[in-house]
Amino acid sequence: MIKREKYLKKMRGFYEQDLIKVITGIRRSGKSTLLKQIMSELRDSGIEDNRIIYINFEDINMKFIKTDMDLNAYIKRKIKTEEKYYLFFDEIQNVVDWEKAINSFKATKNVSIFVTGSNSNLLSGELATLLAGRYVSFKIQPFSFKEVCELKGLQDRSQIEQAFEEYMKWGGMPQRFYFQEELETKNYLMDLYDSIVIKDIVSRYKVKDVELLNKVLEYLMATPAQQFSVKNIVNYLKSENRNCSNETLYNYLSYITNSFIMNKAKRYDIKGKRVLSTNDKYYLTDLGLGQVKSSQKAKGKGSILENIVYNELIDRGYEVFVGKSNRSEIDFIATYFEEKIYVQVAYILTDELVIEREFGAYKGIEDNYPKYVLTMDKFDFSQNGIIHKNVMDWLLEE
């Protein structure tokens, strides 16, 4: 497995700090591997093994640690000197009131603490107020396309293009690259989907109608990058002979995004400079999960590309919105502190009408922030200060 340098370099400056390092991300996206890579770097720096304590709370051997008091008692037995210890807690949401134990360790012991979790609400509960201002968080994504090329050692353009077609279909979950056969990949991703639904949604939120939850998920997975409409999804459920109240639907949407299986992009009014409360878009965190669970017609390649670009922007640290102007929609407005870029995504610029649609979306936006059109085209159609790039080239940039 490759070293996930882009995350490690963000975290190295915090190894010795007393801020709690919180790593979140979808199940099996590589959080445990990242912890082990951090532990390896600490050992290489001279930290003895006995001062590095790692617990995976999904390991059956650790099931006796159920509450904060259990965790506190276990760690107290492990810490035997006044030297600094490094505590690694994997999938810590499985421990009841875990924040209390973490807060106690931070206040009373000489420790550096790292925790992971598969839920975006890991630090949003009432107990998390104990840790307010005392942690720094990092979100881990499945492999980017650049990481896939690094993993496979690809340099030849034809191999890169073949790998991209595969990536569009099966996504970037790290463990899926262990499998050579398509059936094995599909079975692995189906098992992962079931694990996320059961462990991170159904069990956590006590969902009673699992079939209805799956129907909602299947609809969203079949229509990534489409503006969300309550009416459309309710009509779809009715066609499946299922009824769903608006309250239940919005609860399910919250559970789905909290589990990281999908992300929500809100719309931003460019002229009014405000976030809008309607017509959000939902994007798959990993396209492979949509491939194995969507029972509807195949998604268009333009929507798949848009989903990949969204994930890449998130991975590069941007906050991402869907843009609304007077003339049209802008696929993405991505901001990072004072930096801002606009991005349009299309599969191919097939004719003048498509070129006008994609480049013309920027008419009326008169600021000087970079504006991009990303497609699969091999020719450069840049014009009027708008930058056109091949999407694979953009994904492989440093």
Care to describe what's here?
By secondary structure, this protein is α/β, with parallel strands linked by helices. It has two domains: 5-139, Rossmann fold; 145-395, no CATH class. It contains 14 helices and 14 strands. It has helices at residues 5-11, 31-44, 68-78, 98-108, 145-152, 157-170, 182-205, 210-222, 230-239, 246-258, 287-293, 301-315, 352-360, 391-395, and strands at residues 20-24, 52-56, 85-90, 111-117, 135-139, 262-265, 267-269, 274-275, 281-284, 319-324, 329-336, 339-345, 371-375, 387-390.
Distinctive features:
single chain; 398 residues; alpha/beta; seven-stranded mixed beta sheet; five-stranded parallel beta sheet
pLDDT below 50 for ≥5 consecutive residues: which ranges? none
Give the helix/strand class: alpha/beta
Beta-strand residue percentage: 15-25%
The tally of structural domains comes to 2
Q: SSE order in H/E notation?
A: HEHEHEHEEHHHHHHEEEEHHEEEHEEH
Tell me the radius of gyration: 22 Å
Describe the largest sheet: 7 strands, mixed
- Mean pLDDT, as a whole number? 93
What is the count of helical runs? 14
Q: What gross morphology would you assign?
A: globular
Give the strand line-up of the largest sheet: 8-7-10-11-12-13-14
* Straight-line N-to-C gap: 20 Å
